[in-house]
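Notes from the 1:1 (GR / supervisor)

We went over the backlog. Supervisor wanted to see one worked example end to end before approving the batch request, so GR pasted a single chain during the call. The sequence is below; no edits were made to it. Supervisor asked that the structure be written out right there so they could see what the output format looks like.
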Amino acid sequence: MKEQTIIIFIFTTTVAASGLMLIVATYIVTQWMNSRRSYRALVSEGNVVSNLHPDANMDENETRRVAAVTDLREQHKDFLHKKSLSIGQKRKFRRIALSEGYTRVIMVTSASEQVHEGVPLKGRRVGGEEFWRRAEKHQPDEIPLDRLVRKRSDETGVSGTTVIVAPSGFGKSTTLQQITHSWATGEMYPEIDVIFPFKVQQLNSIEGETCLNELVLDYFPHCRDWLQFLWKEPEKILFMLDDVDLLRKPMETPSGNAHGSESFGPERFCEVSQIVRCLIQGRLLKGCSVMATSSPWRLQNLGTVGSHRIVNILGFSAEVMEQYFQRCCLAGGIPDWDETVHTMCHNPGFCSALALTLEAQLTEGAQTQAMATRTRALLTFLTWVLDKRGCEDAIARHMLLKLGGLAYWGVCTETVVFGRDHFDRHSLPLSNWISTLMMEVQGDGGVGYVFTHPVLKDFVAALYKSQCTPADQVKRTLAEWSSCPQDRFKLVSRFLIGLCSPNAVKETGFPWGKVPSETASNVSDWLRENFSRCVQDLQSQRNQKGLLGILDCLLEFGDASTLRDVLAPVKTLRFAKCPLQPADRTVLSKAFIVVQEIQELDLDSCGLEGEGFHQLEQVLHKCKVLSLNKNKLGDSGVTRLSHILKKENCRIQRLFLKSNNLTDGCVETLISALRENTVLLQLDIGNDDPNGDQANRLTDQSIPALSQFIQSNTQVTELRLSHNQFSAEGLKRLERIPASNNLTVKIE
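Structure output shown during the call:
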């Protein structure tokens, strides 16, 4: 009986112990798996983490709070410092150090854009480059990074919200990252105890209701033991909300105005969109500072705001652009493309894409036939912005085709501002995705939509046409566009040609279909045919401009072998009396890099002046006959030309410089270059009209230098000095100088 009792006791004890262990294990696992659920239970019971033991000594609590916040600040700074060291994205965009990749952008607050308390946010009244031009013209005060956070107002007791507004690529996210990094390293905002940066696209993945406490702990779990102390001084907290325009659900005040007007704490549960809206409006954790970024898209969804400031990013100034490209080791600077494309260089994202394109060309060198083109730069830029938005390739392609249809209709009808009815007509939803390339503008008739850069409308239209134009129709399409007055389709045709190149899309990783080889072949044929037609008769300015246009298209096609085949047979090019713009000079310079020699190049009266030589330097030395009469070159132009004459591979045999505002000051420089040159045979620095406003004005002061050259020359056979300003005695002195090497000197 005793033994049975003992056995029963042991069995009972063992069972009880096992049960107890099971209960304990179940409890631990449950606590581990449902920490968020337990937190919600505490909230529902009123035991909120923000309540500090009310019965404790207040001085002791304050000491604990200060110590806890100090510890958290150091941990949090170290955490954010490591996360903000580099910038970059997926695909081909390598990550680089923030210290190397960040470049200052211009940020301003426009008086007309100032938002006061109780006033809804609205879109701008102008869009695209027009807005940035107006802002630069009025030169508003620039806001430095350490002045973006609003200081606490003694009257309202709130710090307020700063909304940074700019189109895609203007550096909104990088600006926030730079501020975060600078705070973490102690360089700015020492009054801030903690910064909580959030990317709205990440918040979009949260389903159901949540609260600010949960959001903070989900992304910054090391703050778990310190939240109760942080919330005591919200004015020392800065929330960063990046890309609020991409919030999946609209930031609308709930029906019945629930949670819509009163302030509430970080423990209240609601939709993420409401948390974002209430933080921006100053209704959640009242007194904290908020810095949000947004494209110029649906700003009215932020609702009626409190102590608010709108900051516009204008992008790079001209000076900063040059510094940026110098830092990228691209000493050549920004390509002199069309002004409409060049203005995109205010966009830091486009500058990055352009630098990558030019860098790739330098790196690839002879390994590829592709060249740096506008098409390639814009494809790289679009790949970058789509990648940043997290767009899947199939979705991006579908939406770009829809948007391209709208853009092409806009090009055909010369529509700049698009209305909702235009989107409906093209079955294009007004989704947040559109803010990648477009922005809202406020007009008298309500809200309209424009492309953030006018050139993007042409480019997206060309994307659409490249996919929907049959191969056997592409030549006809290009012909129709080229015959259209006012150059309406000029850029669209350039981009279509660039997109039809076999090299363009595959070199950038852009999510686009492969161009049929027949399409590329037909485009190549069209270019060859039109080049031949124009080059046969260059007496008319129309054909001269037409040839420049075809050369530009050949460059945009981006295939060096095709360009070489087209240009190789050309012996003579005449652009006399055809004003050459910087972009035209760039086209000539880049196109003729691929040829070894030009028999004759006539650039009389083309408005080159001194600066033109800098752009044409790579091609002028290849010409056997070079005519530069009446270009207002001046002495500075001769200085540039002298560098060309000194090149070992200079082929210039006959050089015409009549009526170029030359003076005695350039003679020594020119003669010095001729001493090193071994090929020049004929030089003309005279005038047709000695009284013309561009006449050369050589006087007797030049005679000693000319005399020395005439007597020591070894290869020049003819020197023309006619109708200059030599005195009668000076002319006699020139006639008496004994010439060497059968040199003929023509004075009159």
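Supervisor's comment: Residues 1-58, 111-121, 154-158, 365-370 have pLDDT under 50 and may be disordered.
Batch request approved.
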